[in-house]
Structures are given as structure tokens and as C-alpha cells.
Write a structure and sequence with these properties.
Elements: H1 5-35, H2 41-46, H3 48-64, H4 70-73, H5 76-99, H6 111-114, H7 126-150, E1 157-162, H8 166-178, E2 183-189, E3 199-200, E4 203-207, H9 212-218, E5 223-226, H10 234-245, E6 249-252, H11 253-261, H12 285-321, E7 327-333, E8 339-345, H13 370-377, H14 386-390, E9 395-397, H15 404-413, E10 426-428, H16 430-434, H17 441-457, H18 460-475
Parallel strand pairs: 1-2, 1-5, 2-4, 5-6, 9-10
Antiparallel strand pairs: 3-4, 7-8
């Protein structure tokens, strides 16, 4: 029952999909029995639109709302809220499609959905409403049962961490602080005599590598996390192989850290530098770039229309609030280090850098004007950058473009920082929806970890997920 991360996610997706299918086809079968009509392929084809809404809508909604992120899937209140909201959203979509603009046999007056069934001809609108309601209820029951049964202490994967240095402490903190429903860190294995019988982050050092196999057997360990950033000795390697032969899972710390946090631990990979780079061959890369560019143009067209509508109001507000131009232009570095100029609505005073020295912006920056603070919370200050997207200097999704002065400093201080320039910078990105403004080298390191994760895993689906989550950030006014 102590499942791995991939096994838990597969289980969640499989049961969620099965419940959605059961409710969609079950509701249609129930209606067919009431109407005395055969439940056959013709009936399914006739009502395929709302059946697909249930079958596809639920998995997409759950994925976009992080219900396959294990730390979120273990929180009861969050799961219930997002499932209830998902049922409401699907119902609204159904009502919008089939009572306003639909041209299928399901159309009809809204009151009939909730009215009494006629003995001989029950309204077919009854079936999708039952399917949405039943799927919401059953998904909630299943997810609560999952939390109760499969996220309890008895199902936690027991692991030991090989290496009690900075990398070991980092992965230990990530496991204990955010993923304790799934993992139990039993202890560290380390050869340093000074660390024997000591505690690191509240977790004991159990012994040197020679004792690892015996400790793993005695403590019923499921997994060993290798948190050694230097080359391992022959003895350590043999101990790891002996553990593997006895059925234990062996996981490098950087890979587990990625799975847990959505970030690449660039400061802890040591000789495993390759795990930080997007060097895996991608089949269909040219087609993927064409699709991404098409998505950029479609989104920039929609945002361009929004820009035209808001431009008079935003321009007036900026002009009344503070003296200076409406727009702000600044040089940034794009793909392969090419320089270009970004366009933004001005959100700071005109003398923000009166001494000519570039300065980091932060969430409580005193240079930000009153109107600028609202523009930043709604992320409207970035809206003029749709022009950069149209020109191909930027994409809708990618690492945010940085100023050349900061890049010169950061690539000296942070390993792999220049890797961000392997892709077009984005109007929004994985780092932007997970982390706020960066005002220090430490913040830049965290944002780089998110950016490298995006570069390694970028896909059309990942871009769409980021765009939708960005809309959520804007609607909640959580931009900074």
C-alpha cells in the first residue's frame, strides 16, 4: 500500500476517469430505462456532446486545479472546494451550450430540467444534470476515501537519505514540510564520523554506508534517496546496488525534488549537471514549435483586443496619478541572448532609477505609483507586451525576460542561469504563477529552478495549464 508518486497519480487519474464515465453513461442508461428506449450506440452518438463534456471536462478541471499534485490532493477542505466548484462550472457550461446556443435534441426550456418527469417522455435534459451531480458527489467520496485510506500514516513510503549534507537536508525539508502524508524520512546514511548519532533537521543519522543494507532491512525501508552531489566511492555504489537487488527503489535527489516541488535543484546536482538541462531529444519538435507559435498569435490577438479596449482608461488613470509617459520601455535579453525592447504600462515614478543604477523591483517597492500598484496586481502593466509576442521576440509562456545588467551578475553567481535563454521569454511563465517578484540573487535562484523545470517539461498542454492558471491569478488579483 506504500505507493510511489507515479503510482498514486496513476491511481487518482484512473479512478477519476472511471467515475466520470460511470456517471455519464449511467445517467444516460437511467434515462433510457425511464423513457423505454433502448440504450444503444445510436443514443450515445445522439448525446455525445454532453457525454464528452463529463468525460473530458472532469479530468481537465482536476488537472488544472492541481488535484494530481499530491500535497494538494491530501488536503480535505481544498479537495472539497475544488470539486464543488468543478461541478458548478460543468453545469454552467452545459446550460450555456444546450440552453442558449445548442442545436441538438437536448435543447429546451430551463425549468424543464428541474420539473417533474412525464411518465412516457422524461426530458432528456435530466440525464446530464444527474451525471454532473452524481459525478461531483462520487468524486468527493472517492477523494475523501483516498485521503483517509491512502494518505494515512500506514501508507507512507519509508525512506532513508544517503548523504546528510546540504542536498540531503534540502530534500528532507521538502519531504517533511510539504509531503508528510506520503513519506516518512526514517533517517540519514552518512560516512562523516562527526555526524554519527547526530540529528539533522530533526532526523537522525543512522550510520555509515556499510550499515545501509542492514538498516534498510531492519527499518522496513521502501526507498533510498541519493543526495550525494560528488562522485560516489566504489563501496557506496556497491551498497546502493545491494539495496537495489533487495527490491528497494533508488532515486536521485534532483529527480525526486523535481517531482515534489516543480523545480530543478540546480545548486545540489553536483556532477549530475545533465539533470538541469533540457537535453532530451524531442520528437516532433518542429511541429511543436509551429503549434506554440500559433497559440501565441491567437492569444496575442485576443489580448490585443483587450488592450485596445482598456487603453483609454488605463492611459487616463496613469496620467492623472503621476506625471510622465503612459508607456515604459526597457531593454531585455531574449532567446539566445538577443536584445530587444519590452513595452509596459508605466507603473513606477519617472525617477525610479534617477542615479542610473539598475535596481530590483519588489512587491512593496516605494517607487510604484498608486495606479501602478493596481496595474501590477491585475498584471495589466504587462499587457502591451503582446506587441513583442506578435513580433516573435516573446512567447505567451516562457521564462520572463530579464535585464542585461542583472543577467551579467546572475550568471556569475548562479550555475546554469544562462540556460533560461534557450527559449523565447514569456508574457507569463511557470515561475510567475508559483513565485512573486524577485528582489535578490536568492529569489532569482528559486525562479531559475522553476524556469528550468518548464524548459525540461514544456509542451502544449503545459503552456495551456500555465495560461489558465495565470487567468486565475489575475482574477484573484494576486499579481505582484
Amino acid at each position: 500500500m506504500r505507493l510511489e508518486i507515479s503510482e498514486r497519480r496513476l491511481l487518482l487519474r484512473s479512478v477519476d476517469t472511471a467515475i466520470a464515465a460511470f456517471c455519464a453513461f449511467g445517467a444516460l442508461l437511467f434515462w433510457a430505462l425511464l423513457a423505454g428506449r433502448p440504450f444503444d450506440l445510436a443514443l450515445v452518438q445522439e448525446q455525445i456532446a454532453w457525454v464528452l463534456l463529463i468525460l473530458i471536462g472532469w479530468p481537465i478541471w482536476l488537472a488544472l486545479n492541481d488535484m494530481y499534485v499530491l500535497r494538494a490532493a491530501a488536503r480535505t477542505s481544498l479537495v472539497v472546494r475544488r470539486l464543488l466548484l468543478g461541478g458548478i462550472v460543468l453545469a454552467i457550461i452545459y446550460l450555456g451550450l444546450f440552453f442558449i446556443a445548442a442545436r441538438t435534441p437536448v435543447t429546451g426550456a430551463l425549468p424543464h430540467v428541474f420539473g417533474s418527469l412525464e411518465a412516457n417522455s422524461p426530458p432528456l435534459r435530466f440525464a446530464p444534470i444527474v451525471a454532473i451531480g452524481a459525478s461531483t458527489f462520487l468524486l468527493a467520496v472517492w477523494r475523501l476515501a483516498y485521503i483517509r485510506v491512502l494518505a494515512g500514516p500506514h501508507t507512507r513510503r519509508r525512506l532513508i537519505i544517503l548523504g546528510a549534507g546540504r542536498a540531503g537536508k534540502t530534500i528532507c525539508d521538502a519531504l517533511v514540510q510539504s509531503h508528510n502524508p506520503y513519506f516518512e524520512v526514517v533517517g540519514f546514511i552518512d560516512d562523516d564520523p562527526a555526524k554519527q548519532q547526530a540529528e539533522i533537521a530533526g532526523v537522525p543519522v543512522l550510520g555509515p554506508h556499510e550499515q545501509m543494507v542492514a538498516i534498510a532491512a531492519t527499518a522496513a525501508i521502501d526507498e533510498i534517496v541519493i543526495a550525494i552531489s560528488t562522485d560516489v566511492s566504489g563501496g557506496v555504489f556497491q551498497a546502493v546496488m545491494d539495496s537495489y537487488e533487495r527490491g528497494l527503489a533508488i532515486t536521485p535527489m534532483p529527480l525526486l525534488y523535481e517531482q515534489l516541488t516543480g523545480r530543478v535543484a540546480v545548486e545540489h546536482i553536483g556532477s549530475q549537471w545533465y539533470v538541469a538541462l533540457p537535453i532530451e531529444p524531442q520528437s516532433g519538435r518542429a511541429a511543436q514549435m509551429v503549434v506554440k507559435r500559433t497559440l501565441d498569435l491567437v492569444c496575442s490577438l485576443l489580448l490585443g483586443l483587450l488592450l485596445l479596449l482598456l487603453l483609454p482608461l488605463v492611459a487616463l488613470a496613469i496620467r492623472l496619478d503621476s506625471a510622465g509617459p503612459i508607456f515604459y520601455r526597457q531593454e531585455r535579453l531574449g532567446r539566445h541572448g538577443q536584445r530587444f525592447v519590452v513595452h509596459k504600462f508605466r507603473s513606477m515614478t519617472t525617477d525610479a532609477e534617477r542615479d542610473g543604477t539598475p535596481r530590483w523591483a519588489d512587491s512593496d517597492d516605494p517607487r510604484v505609483t498608486r495606479v501602478g500598484r493596481w496595474l501590477r496586481r491585475l498584471r495589466l502593466d504587462e499587457l502591451p507586451q503582446v506587441l513583442n509576442v506578435v513580433r516573435g521576440e516573446m512567447s505567451m509562456v516562457g521564462p520572463r525576460p530579464e535585464r542585461p545588467e542583472f543577467i551579467d551578475q546572475l550568471q556569475r553567481d548562479i550555475p546554469f542561469y544562462r540556460t533560461r535563454l534557450a527559449a523565447r521569454p514569456g508574457l507569463t511563465g511557470w515561475a510567475q504563477i508559483n513565485y512573486g517578484y524577485g528582489s535578490s540573487v536568492e529569489d532569482a535562484l528559486i525562479k531559475l529552478q522553476y524556469d528550468l523545470f518548464y524548459l525540461k517539461h514544456q509542451s502544449l498542454w503545459f503552456d495551456i495549464k500555465i495560461l489558465i492558471r495565470t487567468i486565475g491569478v489575475v482574477l484573484r488579483m494576486q499579481g505582484q
